[in-house]
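Async update (no meeting this week)

Hi team, since we skipped the sync, here's where things stand on the single-chain job. The sequence we agreed to prioritize is pasted below, unchanged from the tracker. I ran it this morning and attached the output directly underneath so nobody has to dig for it. Comments welcome in thread, and please keep replies under the output.
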Amino acid sequence: MVQSPTVDAVMADARAAGFATRSIKTESKFAALKLALSMVDLTTLEGKDSPEKVRGLCRKAVRPFERDEELLGERLPHVAAVCVYPSMVRVAKELLGGTGVNVASVATGFPSGQYPLDVRVRDVVEAVADGADEIDMVINRGAFLSGRYDEVAREIRAIKAACGGAHLKVILETGELETYDNVRRASDIAIENIAPGDFIKTSTGKVSPAATMPVTLVMLEAIRDAAMGAGPWRGVEPRKIGMKPAGGIRTAKQSWHYLCMVKETLGDGWLRPEWFRFGASSLANDLLRTMVKLKTGKYPAGYSFSEA
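Output:
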């Protein structure tokens, strides 16, 4: 198992804060907003989810703004994925198949990760059989915080095997990991036991705090080291892993800060939906409002855009 380095918490906080001071030239802002929109995973994970709600979310995923050509002069990109509970995967696949929008599904006893492993594996197998392109699993934080790292690693490998051809996103639930050192160790464990093209993800969105810039930076640095064969990954075959901060990212301005952090930490190669995602449904409409403001000079009302 990779021996994770100690994280300098003061420096991580300071460097992350620096990204929030970056400015983007006016002529680049619209392109950055479109890029961020293409990286959004629209998500509905509520007990009141229904087929009708999921269908509405899928329609928004394919065409985020129906008046885009009228007000913006061009057709906007679709989002990256729609994330739903396993019971809604078939509904989402019916609308999204062939559109370029992936169907993602939380599984493995989301959000606790405490179900028996065989139940979690079966959850994944059934979601993939129903058409899921991506599986978002959550690690067992109880096992991790008890120091049972080998158990966490074995469970990730078992879930990865159950995914078949679907990509895996490993949710660390960083709000419960307590320290940056734990975030780095959990990131390294996940990276070591998944495949190139898979993701690590901050949060379920059910625990506060969710995504923060310092936590995301620590995870990006783990990804960077694995891709470069640096630090604890020296001598290990390089692997390219994606990143998904989720929860708490609500504004276009925040998305710019995260994109700056990705560019400066990992490089332009990660500035694509295949390698970076925002797990933030409410972000999509603020991106749309800001695009309209850049083109027309006026912010539209929030109700100008559908929630689903």
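Quick observations from my side:
The radius of gyration is 19 Å.
The longest helix spans residues 213-228.
Reply here if anything looks off.
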